[in-house]
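Justification of computing resources. Each target in the renewal requires a structure prediction run like the one illustrated here; the chain below, 203 residues long, is used simply to show the kind of job we budget for.
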Amino acid sequence: MKEKTLQETAYIEIKNKIIRGDFLESGFTSQNQLAAELGISRTPIITALQRLQNEGFVKIISKHGIQILGLNVRELEEMYELRLAIETFIIPKVVELMTAEQMEILEEIIQEQKKCVENKDLVQFLKLDSAFHLQLTEVYGNSLFIQTLSNIRERLFSNPYYFRRKDYQISRYVKEHEQIIEAIKSKDISQAIKELEAHILNG
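Resulting structure tokens:
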């Protein structure tokens, strides 16, 4: 049981390090480095890395270390296509089910994003962007959709290009979120789908 707990801890911690961008500069790490940083023995680290390799986050290269994997253009396209399919599909039900409390959460996320624009905090902005879209999916209530979109976000965040881009116009994305919200408030399903589709494709 203790070993299983250590394996899970190692998995979560390493994944969080990848998502935070801790390896952006080198693109590599090693079992010894991770064991030292996390204070966990090599065996749970190895098991965690094998799991992350199966999920596409890393590649274990014998005698060379651990490569942090990005995404190629086709993989990115497929992820955005899947996002588009799921998120536009749920909008009619979201418009029907959205409560005042759920709307308030979305509006609070937008306000936090505006602070990120002021502070030029791209990493936190993108995390809030994830929270915004996952909140819409929570309203719909399909657990598989929620898990799928969460996995997509994690894979996008593990891609070095995601944080190295210099052309982000994050204030535009805030405006797009506001337009999505306004359409939902107005119960205008077609407009909400149109705004959401444009927003995702702009990504």
